[in-house]
Write a structure and sequence with these properties.
This protein is mainly beta. The chain has one domain: Beta Barrel (Porin). The chain contains 1 helix and 11 strands, in the order H-E-E-E-E-E-E-E-E-E-E-E. Strands 1-2-3-4-5-6-7-8-9-10-11 form an 11-stranded mixed barrel. The protein starts with a helix and ends with a strand.
Length: about 210
């Protein structure tokens, strides 16, 4: 893992779009319900819809269920989740995919800043083939003084079990409450594929709504 971490800086410097990349603008939308079921344990259900080809064609519809638990007297969270998705191909045929994942998250607070690091082990695929990935996401958010407005930046990488980077994500956005228990997020994301002959390069405008029961 030391070699992997030392490679991240070089990866960020040299991972600019190549001429052979396929570019696309996409729109991602999601809605999440969260319910506290026992002390520091929550369950959430997330419904998502994604559009591709300059947001003109449906790309994916998914349902994600996650159980999370915060360890007592710490800022560490553990999560276990499952996602079922219906993904649409260029010929408008669809394919069901299944995802299982385990999360380990930690949060660090400094004044009005919050730093969150999430490690995820993910297994995803169809009935015949599954891909295993390690994902690590870094997020820095800032609470603007005297407001509930919180801008944030994110970076995430996807690493397969052969220690090859498959994907990078760079995001910038903000969160803001709409009502007492309802929060809204708006973000702009760049997603880049790596180590493939025809990489895809996505520019994504995303929105998400969260409601706590």
């Amino acid at each position: 893992m030391r070699t992997i971490r030392n490679s991240i800086i070089l990866l960020l410097i040299f991972s600019f779009p190549a001429s052979s990349q396929q570019n696309d603008f996409q729109n991602w939308t999601s809605f999440r319900l969260t319910k506290k079921i026992y002390k520091r344990t929550n369950i959430s259900i997330k419904e998502g819809v994604r559009f591709r080809e300059n947001t003109s064609i449906l790309s994916k519809v998914f349902t994600d269920v996650k159980l999370s638990h915060k360890i007592k007297k710490t800022d560490i969270k553990l999560g276990l989740g499952y996602r079922f998705s219906d993904e649409y191909n260029f010929d408008f045929s669809s394919e069901y995919k299944y995802r299982y994942y385990f999360d380990f998250s930690s949060v660090y607070n400094y004044k009005r800043y919050k730093i969150e690091i999430r490690d995820r082990i993910q297994i995803e695929g169809s009935n015949t083939d599954f891909n295993r990935l390690f994902r690590q996401k870094f997020e820095i958010s800032y609470n603007v003084r005297k407001t509930p407005f919180e801008p944030f930046v994110q970076f995430e990488y996807f690493l397969n079990f052969n220690e090859e980077f498959e994907k990078l994500r760079y995001s910038i956005g903000f969160s803001h409450p709409i009502f007492k228990k309802i929060d809204a997020n708006l973000f702009y994301r760049i997603q880049q594929q790596l180590n493939t002959s025809h990489p895809e390069h996505f520019f994504i405008l995303g929105t998400s709504i969260s409601y706590k029961l």
